[in-house]
Specification:
Distance between the termini: 23 Å
Order of helices and strands: EEEEEEEHEEEEE
Helix content: under 10%
Structural class: mainly beta
Radius of gyration: 18 Å
Strand content: over 45%
Strand order of the largest sheet: 2-1-8-9-12-6-3
Number of helices: 1
Amino acid sequence: MQLLINGSEIAAYPSQFTVTTMDLDDGESTVRTADGTLNRDRIAVKRQIEMSWGPLPWGKISAILSAMENVFFSFTYPDPMTGKYETKTFYVGNRPAPFATAKGNEILWNGLKITLTER
C-alpha cells in the first residue's frame, strides 16, 4: 500500500486504515411522499479516511502531523470503490496523540488518530 501526502510518502504507515464512502447531506428537495417513497437529492459523494497508529517516536509523529498542517492538502490512497489509487484534496479534523512513554531523550506517542475528510 502507498500513502502520499502532497506527493511525499507518509512518515509511518498506520496500523488501522479505513475508507468510508459517504453521501453528503441531502438537498432541500429530498422528501418522502405520502406513501413513504423517498425522492432523494444527493449533493455529492465524498471520502472520509480514518487512520490510527501504534507507538510512534517523536520524529515520526511530528512528520505526520506537520505534513497535514495546511488547511487542505492532497492525499493519495487506495480507494475501495474505484479499485485504484486516487489523489484527492482533504482536510484533517482533530488529531489526538496520547503520550505513551519516555525512554531517555526519546518520547513515544501511542494511539495517534486522524480523520481526513474530502474537500
